[in-house]
């Protein structure tokens, strides 16, 4: 038998030699023949030497060729084997799926693996996931997974690992994708640790994330760094170390080192290993397959050997001669069955491995643990071992919280943790009170632990210095073991979660803006205009104008509107129309102002026009009145900022947040450039005038009050709610900018207990009770009620209705101007008629008007000569001529003035 092996990796060569030794040693495997080996080492991918070496080995006579590993060299060897009918045995993953007569590959077929991965994703109910793959060839193994995501509800995002060894930007994209928590990694085994390490660096190694890794050799990797984060890392393995055959074989290989050491390592990584030249090797799949392949060959040879004599024949690469037993051996290899290191080995007629069974393994705190098996031949593919939770529960029973005294690190912040007001000197836990203390009391009652409260030494919540990779504040204290748990208003975020374990949130919140309460705006002068928008006023004006014109026109057209000018004339020569242009406007404005006029339309058309106009005015006036009250009473607030964007756009109002908390991280590590710019500004302002980024919320709140409208503070909604309730003049601007929760930070052994405790407190309503107690009841003080003073309806002030007065004064002024123009015009005419001056006439008239001595005044007659020029048709032309007789222009006495003071058609009363 010949083996072509990679000179850089001796593991397969060792397995090959051991396997041949065992086949020769075990008389039952090959009783009538013995295997001898020829081994050649090649550098990876060296096809030329591979072909030469095969020809050289054939000259000496061979029954089968194993290897080589590189796909290019393997193809060359394959064509030689095909030509000379020598069995070729491969044990590596090959996407090309070659179906050659003289080839047999023990590695599970890519399609079998593809189904296995798809089944696992289905079993885990992954709906959205990202597939990280190394190269396009590997996609053959992911076919089912990709196909399944296309038409169904499953959504897969494909991402190729970049060249080089920096995958952080790809991993960060996954971190920022809000809907992806499932990661499928398909890359060569040696790249897996680096990908996982960088995932941990960017914050993807938290218990929110689940991973499936396609490598079948995950047991050969050191995953201790990832085993404490409660991250779901799942993979398949084909070599089951718990099977006695595997154990026995590995122990044989492993005779160089002590059994104790073997057990501990094997337990930690969940994989068997062996020693070669004093170097520890974990049993890789391909190595195990080489071992199995030798046994398979031995078994096939034995079957053939039993029926005929087999001779090894030297062959020459330059001749056409072939080996007559090659075809039979390869066929027997496809027919026989074997229980090997990689489970049951059997093939279908095409020479592909069938009935593959693999273990599903998951990373736990104590290493890889088998959680089930996958079997390609069953309809229900998975057979899960004992539920994970059950196992964990059994393990966690060993961690007993009862009677343990936990050191609790916390921080002062109203109303979470405050110093008790007391005349007595207090010590220990007695010094403190607040929501956190009550929560700890309740949890300690539930879980049976005792606790000592300690204030965090650096007064910080905890932020990560990305350059040094170091934490500060409460997070550091728990990481370094200075405290067992951190209980405070400690927000859970991704970075923190990668450093510590957190319980489920006991309170939900989001970041918002604290600012001084805005003042009320002074009412506008013309606020009576506000019930209608400007365009409505405009349209009303157009409507008024249009309707007046239309009314004028249709009245002139309609015969009914042409009337006898005086009731005493029975057969008039002329008819008169009351809807002059001026009267039409007077009619529409009269009804719009709800006053009416004594112009009454008579024709159907004008009445319809009038009716529809009245309907319009009714609705408009009612709507105006309905809206007016609220516009006059409701006072608008003068808010200089309404959102985060308003703050970002300006530099006059400075802003800040707690410098070492999660709010600072919210800006600092934000994916949105606007927020990062805001953070830079905060840092710059803070370096010039410290206090922009205070140490705690109380300092920030006080600065907001002190700076009166010149400083806004980003604070968590829970604390804003408390501050606004207690301190007058504070106000929350806008809604929440994010959504998160406060959790208890700790190392994972306690998490299960604390989660259970918090859930019980939530279900019993205790968390709500504590919230009410510390936000509404305790330390309430006088509150701001006194300031709110006035309630109910407030009387309108002059500022509210000032505009109406302005309009009145304006209207009066215009009326006076018109009166003066009329007065001047009339007196100018009289002065011209009588030959006096305008000033004389005006002063005479003014004296009479202002003397208020009489309500009647003599009529001024026009001079005769001015009249004579108009006497052409024998009829008087100027109505003034008849005024002194008390007759109108038709020779009838003037109509008496109206008693009701209403507006007559000429507009005189
Ligand atoms: N609760 C925050 C934290 O856990 C501190 C306050 C803040 O950053 O606004 O870091």
TrEMBL record:
- What CDD domains is this protein classified in? PBP1_iGluR_Kainate (cd06382)
Residue numbers for the site described as Crucial to convey clamshell closure to channel opening? 641
One Gene Ontology BP term is: cell surface receptor signaling pathway
Q: How does it sit in the membrane?
A: Multi-pass membrane protein
MF annotations from Gene Ontology: transmitter-gated monoatomic ion channel activity
Which stretches of sequence are listed as region Disordered? 856-909
Q: Which residues form the Ionotropic glutamate receptor C-terminal domain?
A: 405-777
Listed A to Z, the keywords are: Cell membrane, Disulfide bond, Glycoprotein, Ion channel, Ion transport, Ligand-gated ion channel, Membrane, Postsynaptic cell membrane, Receptor, Signal, Synapse, Transmembrane, Transmembrane helix, Transport
Where along the chain is composition biased (Polar residues)?
867-882
Query: For L-glutamate, which residues are the binding ones?
Result: 491, 496, 662-663, 716
Q: Where in the cell is it found?
A: Postsynaptic cell membrane
Which residues belong to the signal peptide in this entry?
none
Q: Which organism is it from?
A: Orchesella cincta (Springtail)
The UniProt entry's sequence similarity note says:
Belongs to the glutamate-gated ion channel (TC 1.A.10.1) family.
**UniProt-recorded name of the protein:** Glutamate receptor ionotropic, kainate 2
């Amino acid at each position: 038998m010949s083996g072509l092996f990679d000179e850089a990796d001796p593991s397969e060569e060792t397995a090959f030699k051991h396997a041949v030794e065992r086949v020769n040693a075990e008389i039952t495997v090959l009783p009538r023949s013995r295997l001898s080996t020829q081994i050649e080492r090649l550098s990876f991918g060296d096809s030329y030497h591979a072909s030469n070496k095969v020809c050289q080995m054939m000259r000496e006579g061979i029954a089968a060729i194993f290897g080589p590993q590189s796909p290019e060299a393997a193809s060359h060897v394959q064509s030689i084997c095909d030509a000379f009918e020598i069995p070729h045995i491969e044990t590596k993953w090959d996407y090309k799926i070659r179906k050659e007569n003289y080839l047999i590959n023990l590695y599970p077929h890519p399609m079998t693996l593809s189904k296995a991965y798809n089944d696992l994703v289905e079993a885990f109910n992954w709906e959205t996931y990202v597939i990280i793959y190394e190269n396009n060839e590997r996609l053959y193994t992911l076919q089912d997974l990709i196909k399944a995501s296309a038409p169904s509800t499953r959504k897969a995002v494909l991402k190729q690992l970049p060249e080089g060894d920096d995958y952080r930007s790809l991993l960060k994209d996954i971190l920022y994708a809000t809907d992806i928590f499932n990661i499928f990694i398909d890359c060569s085994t040696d790249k897996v640790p680096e990908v996982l390490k960088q995932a941990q660096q960017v914050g993807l190694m938290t218990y929110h994330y689940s991973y499936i890794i396609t490598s079948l050799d995950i047991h050969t990797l050191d995953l201790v760094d990832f085993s404490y984060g409660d991250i779901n890392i799942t993979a398949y393995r084909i070599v089951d170390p718990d099977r006695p055959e595997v154990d026995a074989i590995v122990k044989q290989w492993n005779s160089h080192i002590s059994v104790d050491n073997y057990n501990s390592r094997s337990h930690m990584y969940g994989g068997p290993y062996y020693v070669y030249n004093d170097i520890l090797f974990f049993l890789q799949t391909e190595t195990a397959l080489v071992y199995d392949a030798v046994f398979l060959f031995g078994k096939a040879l034995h079957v053939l050997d039993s029926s005929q004599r087999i001779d090894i024949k030297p062959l020459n690469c330059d001749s056409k001669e072939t080996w007559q037993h090659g075809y039979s051996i390869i066929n027997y290899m496809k027919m026989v069955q074997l229980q090997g290191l990689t489970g049951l080995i059997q093939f279908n007629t095409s020479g592909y491995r069938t009935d593959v069974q693999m273990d599903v393994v998951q990373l736990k705190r104590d290493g890889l643990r088998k959680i089930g098996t996958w079997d390609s031949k069953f309809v229900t593919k998975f057979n899960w071992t004992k539920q994970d939770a059950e196992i964990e529960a059994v393990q966690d029973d060993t961690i007993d919280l009862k009677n343990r005294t936990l050191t609790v690190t916390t921080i002062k912040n109203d109303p979470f943790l405050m110093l008790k007001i007391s005349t007595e000197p207090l010590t220990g836990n007695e010094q403190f009170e607040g929501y956190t203390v009550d929560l700890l009391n309740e949890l300690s009652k539930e879980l049976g632990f005792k606790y000592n409260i300690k204030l965090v030494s650096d007064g910080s919540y905890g932020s990560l210095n990305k350059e040094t990779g170091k934490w500060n504040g409460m997070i550091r204290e728990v990481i370094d073991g200075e405290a067992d748990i951190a209980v405070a208003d400690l927000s859970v975020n991704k970075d923190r979660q990668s450093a510590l374990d957190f319980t489920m949130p006991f309170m939900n919140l989001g970041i918002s803006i604290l600012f001084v309460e805005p003042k009320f705006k002074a009412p506008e002068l013309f606020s009576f205009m506000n019930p209608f928008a400007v365009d409505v006023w405009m349209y009303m004006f157009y409507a008024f104008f249009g309707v007046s014109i239309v009314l004028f026109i249709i009245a002139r057209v309609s015969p009914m509107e042409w009337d006898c000018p005086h009731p005493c004339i029975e057969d008039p020569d002329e008819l008169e129309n009351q809807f002059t242009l001026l009267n039409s406007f007077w009619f529409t404005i009269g009804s719009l102002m709800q006053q009416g006029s004594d112009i009454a339309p008579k024709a159907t058309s004008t009445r319809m026009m009038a009716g529809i106009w009245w309907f319009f005015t009714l609705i408009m006036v009612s709507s105006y009145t309905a809206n007016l009250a609220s516009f006059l009473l409701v006072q608008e607030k003068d808010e200089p900022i309404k959102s985060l964007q308003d703050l970002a756009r300006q530099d006059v109002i400075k802003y800040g947040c707690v410098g070492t908390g999660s709010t600072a991280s919210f800006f600092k590590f934000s994916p949105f450039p606007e927020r990062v710019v805001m953070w830079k500004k905060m840092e710059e302002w803070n370096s010039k005038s410290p206090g922009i980024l205070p140490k705690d919320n109380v300092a920030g709140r006080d600065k907001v009050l002190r700076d009166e409208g010149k400083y806004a503070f980003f604070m968590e909604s829970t604390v804003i709610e408390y501050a606004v309730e207690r301190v007058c003049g504070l106000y929350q601007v806008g809604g929440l900018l994010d959504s998160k929760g406060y959790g208890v930070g700790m190392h994972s052994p306690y998490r299960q207990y604390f989660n259970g405790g918090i859930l019980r407190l939530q279900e019993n309503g205790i968390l709500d009770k504590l919230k009410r107690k510390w936000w509404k009841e305790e330390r309430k003080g006088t509150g701001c009620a006194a300031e709110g003073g006035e309630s109910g309806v407030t009387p309108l002030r002059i500022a509210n209705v000032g505009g109406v007065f302005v309009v009145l004064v304006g209207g009066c002024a215009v009326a006076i101007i018109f009166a003066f123009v009329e007065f001047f015009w009339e007196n100018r005419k009289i002065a011209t008629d009588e030959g006096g001056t305008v000033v004389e006439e005006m002063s005479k008239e003014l004296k009479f008007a202002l003397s208020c001595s009489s309500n009647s005044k003599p009529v001024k007659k026009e001079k005769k000569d001015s009249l004579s020029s108009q006497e052409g048709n024998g009829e008087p032309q100027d109505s003034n001529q008849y005024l002194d007789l008390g007759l109108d222009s038709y020779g009838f006495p003037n109509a008496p003035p109206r008693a009701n003071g209403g507006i007559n058609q000429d507009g005189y009363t």
